[in-house]
Amino acid sequence: MTTTAPATTQLHSDVTEFLSKQPHKLLIGGQWKEAVSGKTFDTYNPATSEAIAKVAEADKKDVDEAVKAARKAFEGPWSKVTPSERGRLLYKLADLIEAHADELAQLETLNNGKTIRESRKGDLPLAVDLFRYYSGWTTKIHGETIPVSVPYAPGAKFFHYTVREPVGVIAAIIPWNFPFLMAIERLAPALACGNTVVLKPAEQTPLSSLRLGELILEAGIPEGVVNVVPGFGPTAGAALAAHPDVDKVTFTGSTEVGREIIKASAGNLKRVSLELGGKSPNIIFADADIEAAVKGAFMGIFYNQGQCCSAGSRIFVEKSKYDEVVEALVAKAKTVRQGPGLDSTTHMGPLVSQEQLDRVTGYVASGKKEGAKLLCGGERGDGALSKGYFLKPTVFVDVKDEMKIAQEEIFGPVATVMPFESTEELVARANGTVYGLVAGIWTKDIKKAFRTANALRAGTIWINCYNFVDSAAPWGGYKQSGYGREKGPYALELYTQLKSVWVDLN
Ligand code: ADP
After folding, report:
1. For residue 378, what pLDDT band results from cuts at 50, 70 and 90?
2. CA–CA separation, 390 vs 408, rounded Å?
3. Among 66, 167, 218, 328, whose Cα sits 20 to 30 Å from the Cα of 240?
4. SS3 string of 408-427?
5. Which one is catalytic: 275, 318, 409, 486?
């Protein structure tokens, strides 16, 4: 394990300028406003645990105002913008994000902890691409004509057509692991379809959503179309989920909170789409390219400090290659250079918060208590890193399927590596959690790869690769990993509704 002293990375002047605008305000109806309560909360740099900004704290009253502004924009100016003009605005926003990508990547890294490499090469380009992708869809969302014939009206003639319309006011409640990207993943299709949005970023990571709010105004998107209300889950989040004038809530976060969202949505039967947790299997057959598989398994669990819903947290290895894979994973984990995400030489940054660090170390303790063997990691960063929320990359063996660390989502850099002997046994075990978000398969036998892919109950399967995503490819879970599919044309279903129109021709 290599540790570095926090490097004094030069912050982009735009980041410094943005940070100086304190306290950061809520974006409601195109205006930057203090919270009605006047309350603010601190947001932190997880690499040092220092507060970096004060942010206005939205609660129910601010949410009411934001929903009102979103409704007004939905019924007013936004409904008059043509699909082609909507596309142009989204494309312009993509260009603006791209022009500010260095600054946004730094802001994201500063607030979330992830490495600058991941922010700059992963999150930001993906976000730009999502806006460009959906800007192309705005002019291609349309209904159909249907040749109807009515059994109880023989010979009657009708002209029937469908219209695909926006759902209305969308509440987007998003988590802290990919703060900017998650916001864009919801905003791009929701706006392309003609909806308006109230965005609630996670309380841990509000900054990139607030900066995005500024760029949205700069792009010329009418006021009230996007409102940004940072605040806490049980107050601002719950108020949005229960709000009688919100038509749909799109939520990404824990399965536990997903259940709360469903309950809160019952009042006005708002639509709900959920992208929830995972406990994904990454399966290495003995005939795989072991070097590539180890790399893929390593990145699968340790990318973003393991704080990914798609983390390949259960690594299954066919018995004859088990020892070799475990040894390689542990050796690799020991060479990881941990440090502040802003330092370009850092491989792995801190976890997002003290709460998350406590949660993950709680799972490490539980794994040990249940009899799993810790081969490396499990402890906090030392020296200069002890002030931040660093946890060393952790590998457990001697793990039983029923242990908590093999069943529950840890959302941290904790791998469980388990041997298997037959494909049937493996499939049952790989499917043996309440989740079904993604799975990885490593083998050179193409038939085995397809057979296993068919048998796994997961929304995304990666064969001889891991963690690849694209704006056009569907994303979402089986079982308790959620419902609805984001991205691609599939998200258009989530953010539109169909009207069926009959015209009497008799
Ligand atoms: P995590 O466990 O990864 O922190 P959560 O599911 O708790 O993720 O949080 C994801 C998002 O849901 C955050 O924006 C958070 O504020 C919000 N949230 C948390 N609790 C609630 C709730 N009861 N109602 C609505 N939103 C909530």
Report:
1. very high
2. 21
3. 218
4. CCCCCCEEEEEEECCHHHHH
5. 275
Each residue of 209-267: pLDDT tens digit?
A: 999 999 999 999 999 999 999 999 999 999 999 999 999 999 999 999 999 999 999 99
| DSSP 3-state of 272 | strand
CA dihedral of residues 371, 372, 375, 376 (deg, nearest 10)? -100
The atom of ligand 1 lying closest to the CA of 200 is: 14
The CATH classification number of 281-470 equals: 3.40.309.10
pTM of this prediction? 0.96
Output the pLDDT for position 10. 84
Report the SS3 class of residue 300.
Answer: helix
CATH fold for the domain made of 8-276+483-500: Aldehyde Dehydrogenase; Chain A, domain 1 (3.40.605)
275 an active-site residue? yes
How does pLDDT run across 314-366, given as a tens digit for each residue? 999 999 999 999 999 999 999 999 999 999 999 999 999 999 999 999 999 99
Cα dist from 285 to 239, 320, 468, 471, whole Å: 48, 9, 20, 30
Per-domain residue ranges for the chain? Answer: 8-276+483-500, 281-470
Using an 8 Å Cβ cutoff, are 380 and 392 in contact? yes
Instruction: Tell me what pLDDT residue 166 has.
Output: 98
Which of these is catalytic: 65, 260, 308, 309? 309
In the structure encoding, which two tokens stand for residue 169, read together?
């006011």
The answer to whether the Cα torsion of 28, 34, 38, 39 is positive or negative is: positive
List the residue whose alpha carbon is closest to atom 16 of ligand 1. Answer: 233
Residue 41: per-residue pLDDT: 98
